[in-house]
Amino acid sequence: MIPEAREVHLSRKDRKVLEACCRSPVTLQRDLKRARIVLLAADGRSTRSIAKEVGVQPRIVSLWRHRYADHGLEGLQDKPRPGKQPIYTKTTDKRILKLLDKPPPQGFARWTGPLLAEALGDVDVQYVWRFLRSHKIDLVARKSWCESNDPNFTAKAADVVGLYVAPPAKAIVLCVDEKPSIQALERAQGYLKLPNGRALTGQSHDYKRHGTTTLLAALEVATGKIIATHSKRRRRVEFLDFMNSVTATFPNRKLHVILDNLNTHKKNEDWLKAHPNVQFHFTPTSASWLNQVEVWFSILQGQSLSGTSFTSLKQLQEHIDAYVNAYNDRAEPFVWTKKKVRQRRFKGRRITQL
Is the CATH number 2.60.120.280 carried by domain 154-329? Predict the structure, then answer.
C-alpha cells in the first residue's frame, strides 16, 4: 500500500538547485531521479504519474516526497549505512607491535607471520601479514652496522676525506689494502635443459679447491687505476714488499697512503724512515669503509669472481690480472658525494642479547 502523498512546497532557492541538478551532464542518475521526483511533486503531480514518468516504483516516489518534506534538500542524500563491525581494531595492531618487541619463541631466530598469529591466538595470519605490509615491517630483512668507538674518529675521518676532496699538490694519494684467501674453486658449469624445454645456466654445488691467493691492491685516487699483485701469505713482509713496488711505480713523488688498522700496516717506522716521501694515513677504528680500495674489492667480487670456476691457482691469478688490466683501460676516479663525515651515536638504540 502506498502511503498518502505528502504535499511538497519548493522554495525558489531549492528549485534553482534541483533544476540545475537536472541540467548538469555530470549528475548521477540516482540524484537526477530524486530531483525530478521532487520537482514534479511540487507541481502537484500524483505519485503514480510521477513514477510512470521517471521510471521508478510508486513507493520510491513516496519515499523521496516524504524525505524532502521532512528534511529539505538534505533529505535527498543517502543516510549513512552501518557496515559490518571490523573484527580487528587498533587494539589488535598494538598487540602485534607489543609482541614484536618480545623475543621469539624458544628455538626460533625471529618472528614469522604464523608464529605471531599462533602467539596471539585470535588473529588470522592473513591479517598479520596485511598489518606488517601496511607498516612496512619486514621480518626477514636484517640491518647491519658498524659503530666506531675511536675517540679520534672526527680527526682521522677528516684527514682521509681531505685527501679525497683536496689532495696535496704534486702528490699521489693511494688507497692500499689486501683481499685475503681468494679461493680457486672448480665448479661444474654450463646449461641444464629441463623436461619442459627451458634451459637454465648456473653451476653445481660441488666444487674442488685448488688453493688460495691474497691480492694486494693499491688504488690511485686521482685516476681510479689499480696496482695489484698476488701473495701466498698476508704478513708484514708481503705488505712492505708490495709497498716497495708501489714506490718504484711513482719515483720521486710524494705518496699519501690510506690504510686500515691492520697490525701489519702499523709499526713500520723503519721502512717509513727509509722512504721519506711516503706518509701513512689510517682510517678510524672500525671504519675501513673510508678506504676506497674496499669499494673496488666489491666491484672485483661482483664482476670478476662471483660465479666463475678455476682449475688451478695460476688460472685464478691470471683471471684477476686480466680483469685488472681491463679495468684500468676504462678506470675512472670515485667521486666523494657525502658532505659531512662525523661520529654520531645511535639515540635510544636497543641491542638485545639473546
Answer: no
